[in-house]
């Protein structure tokens, strides 16, 4: 987001405020649709009663061959809202089924794009790279298994898109630790729209220790006591439609850099309630938001345990009273509802502050997600395990953090653009997605990536194919860094070392970052250091640098300029900000893993 409201927009806002001031606050119906007279720069959802609807339990698919076609649907998000146009996978009417797979057993995922209509057609912005008018009526899709170690042709590359009637059989080797993955759309320039409309689902990878069945060797809750939770925030119109617009100053069809919602949605329902037994539950949670980072806690501040992150289980459960998740991050939690009496309720809440440049429009934190109501029946009464790795019937302990031989500085930037172009440009390394100046780590290399965030808001950074360990974070005087090394024109790499501009001690990884991760929050004006080992083709069982398919997109830059390359062979993977608003424009770069 830009740090200032443009003067013309600010004057328009003052005029709107003045007009609203002539009408009493009690006359909200007289105001423009969805506008709160006390917050005229923000759209709002209609008032909705929390905890009216039960938490939906997502269906489960298993086996070595599954089908998850994408389709157009109608979905009711709340009992007081009408059915809303949506997208879904696998025959559901919103989101997709939870897929269960086993380590070492290949999964064939049969996918076809059966989307007949685009519920967010009016929000397509053709000024973004790779987006055309055709995307309004013929929705492009690319299914990505987030966190999966998959061949490049099955990774859901954003340029490897499928349109209505087209399909692909994705082959997932599942040669990695048991963990929580999720699958979602990744099509160029419209990822935020397709996921928001419903194209997302969880993918749980099991092994002989974490079987997902009762009596598993780790002593973890299973069956009805293991609950996948897909968390989102949304804004709704009065007729129940999903809206990706956050403010009236931005015309419909124009990309926005920040679209936090005012309503919590879990598994497709607004502020639902779940009846739970008195005992231990395993909650498999993913932040599937377009923009929002959340600091999650229970309103009674009770303790719970984090047992794993994106890359799998920790060595031991970690007791906490909150967990902070950025878009794309997952948390594997144990929660003991047996500590509460029958009839007690507890809410899953959020108090993450809104970044200042977004909060200046009047946006406030979305406060809650769901409520749990404790019944009288006994549930899973086993204890919280003392260890998860290293025992006789447990997977091996996590390996120590590898020693990097290469240090690579990368930067996260937001850059103002001229009139007629979507602004600001969200950029990695001061480059556009179309650049050929990409990272090319060697197979087998161990590298330290210093992710320097020179913006005033956090960005969750995701690397496809690989996992990494978080070393820590430090504050950076980015003003001094930019004064010493001025930012060149967009298209010229800008990745200075942050080390001369460090301001403060190293902050250790958070307790919920103890293991392997594939997505990490790079906080504002700071450097986040991670260590990643890039696997070899022999270890993977496939060539990660193989070419595949052809790009379905011309090489188009913001503002409508194209360089005439209508099609080219695809190669490699991508890394990007997982704020979906940002990845669509243009905070995503390709990378290759070379021999």
TrEMBL record:
<dbReference type="InterPro" id="IPR006311">
    <property type="entry name" value="TAT_signal"/>
</dbReference>
<feature type="domain" description="Plastocyanin-like">
    <location>
        <begin position="429"/>
        <end position="535"/>
    </location>
</feature>
<dbReference type="InterPro" id="IPR001117">
    <property type="entry name" value="Cu-oxidase_2nd"/>
</dbReference>
<dbReference type="InterPro" id="IPR011706">
    <property type="entry name" value="Cu-oxidase_C"/>
</dbReference>
<dbReference type="InterPro" id="IPR045087">
    <property type="entry name" value="Cu-oxidase_fam"/>
</dbReference>
<feature type="compositionally biased region" description="Polar residues">
    <location>
        <begin position="243"/>
        <end position="253"/>
    </location>
</feature>
<dbReference type="InterPro" id="IPR011707">
    <property type="entry name" value="Cu-oxidase-like_N"/>
</dbReference>
<dbReference type="InterPro" id="IPR008972">
    <property type="entry name" value="Cupredoxin"/>
</dbReference>
<dbReference type="Pfam" id="PF07731">
    <property type="entry name" value="Cu-oxidase_2"/>
</dbReference>
<comment type="similarity">
    <text>Belongs to the multicopper oxidase family.</text>
</comment>
<feature type="domain" description="Plastocyanin-like">
    <location>
        <begin position="238"/>
        <end position="337"/>
    </location>
</feature>
<dbReference type="Pfam" id="PF07732">
    <property type="entry name" value="Cu-oxidase_3"/>
</dbReference>
<feature type="domain" description="Plastocyanin-like">
    <location>
        <begin position="138"/>
        <end position="207"/>
    </location>
</feature>
<feature type="region of interest" description="Disordered">
    <location>
        <begin position="239"/>
        <end position="261"/>
    </location>
</feature>
<protein>
    <submittedName>
        <fullName>Multicopper oxidase domain-containing protein</fullName>
    </submittedName>
</protein>
<dbReference type="Pfam" id="PF00394">
    <property type="entry name" value="Cu-oxidase"/>
</dbReference>
């Amino acid at each position: 987001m830009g740090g200032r409201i443009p003067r013309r927009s600010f004057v328009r806002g003052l005029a709107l405020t003045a007009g609203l001031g002539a009408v009493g606050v009690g006359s909200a119906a007289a105001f423009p649709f969805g506008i709160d007279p006390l917050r005229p720069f923000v759209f709002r959802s209609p008032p909705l009663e929390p905890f009216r609807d039960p938490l939906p339990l997502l269906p489960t698919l298993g086996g070595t061959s599954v089908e998850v076609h994408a389709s157009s649907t109608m979905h009711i998000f709340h009992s007081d809202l009408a059915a809303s146009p949506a997208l879904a996978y696998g025959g559901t009417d919103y989101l997709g089924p939870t897929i269960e797979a086993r380590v070492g057993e290949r999964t064939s995922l049969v996918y076809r794009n059966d989307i007949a209509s685009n519920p967010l057609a009016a929000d397509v912005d053709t000024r973004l790279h790779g987006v055309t008018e055709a995307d309004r009526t013929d929705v492009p899709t690319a299914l990505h298994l987030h966190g999966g170690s998959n061949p490049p042709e099955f990774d859901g590359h954003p340029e490897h898109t499928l349109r209505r009637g087209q399909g692909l059989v994705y082959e997932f080797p599942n040669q990695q630790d048991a963990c929580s993955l999720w699958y979602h759309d990744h099509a160029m320039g419209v990822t935020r729209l397709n996921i928001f409309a419903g194209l997302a689902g969880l993918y749980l990878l099991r092994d002989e220790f974490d079987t997902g069945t009762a009596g598993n060797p780790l002593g973890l809750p299973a069956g009805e006591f293991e609950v996948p939770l897909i968390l989102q925030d949304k804004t709704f119109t009065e007729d129940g439609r999903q809206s990706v617009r956050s403010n009236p100053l931005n015309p419909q069809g124009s990309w926005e850099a920040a679209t936090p919602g005012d309503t919590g949605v879990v598994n497709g329902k607004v502020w639902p309630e779940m009846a739970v037994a008195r005992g231990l539950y395993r909650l498999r949670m993913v932040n599937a938001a377009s923009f929002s980072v959340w600091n999650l806690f229970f309103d009674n501040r009770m303790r719970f345990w984090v047992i794993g992150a994106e890359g799998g289980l920790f060595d031991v459960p970690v007791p906490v009273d909150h967990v902070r998740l950025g878009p794309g991050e997952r948390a594997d939690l144990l929660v003991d509802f047996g500590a509460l009496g029958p009839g007690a309720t507890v809410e899953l809440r959020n108090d993450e502050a809104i970044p200042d440049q977004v909060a200046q429009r009047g946006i406030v934190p979305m406060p809650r997600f769901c409520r749990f109501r404790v019944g009288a029946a006994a549930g899973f009464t086993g204890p919280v395990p003392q260890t998860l790795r290293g025992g006789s019937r447990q997977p091996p302990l996590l390996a120590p953090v590898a020693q990097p031989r290469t240090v690579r500085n990368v930067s996260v930037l937001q850059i103002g653009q001229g009139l007629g172009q979507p602004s600001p440009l969200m950029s990695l390394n001061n480059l556009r997605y179309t650049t050929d100046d990409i990272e090319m780590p060697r197979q087998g290399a161990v590298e330290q990536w210093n992710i320097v965030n020179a913006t005033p808001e956090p960005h969750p950074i995701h690397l496809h194919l690989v996992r990494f360990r978080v070393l820590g974070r430090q504050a950076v005087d980015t003003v001094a860094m930019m004064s010493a090394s001025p930012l060149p024109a967009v298209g010229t790499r800008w990745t200075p070392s942050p080390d001369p501009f460090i301001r403060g001690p190293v902050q250790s990884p958070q307790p919920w970052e103890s293991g392997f991760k594939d997505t990490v929050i790079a906080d504002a004006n700071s450097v986040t250091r991670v260590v990643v080992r890039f696997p070899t083709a022999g270890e993977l069982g496939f060539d990660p640098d193989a070419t595949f398919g052809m790009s379905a997109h011309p090489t188009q830059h913001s503002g409508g300029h194209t360089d005439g390359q209508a099609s080219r062979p695809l190669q490699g993977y991508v890394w990007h900000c997982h704020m979906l608003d940002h990845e669509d424009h243009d905070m995503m770069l390709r990378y290759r893993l070379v021999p």
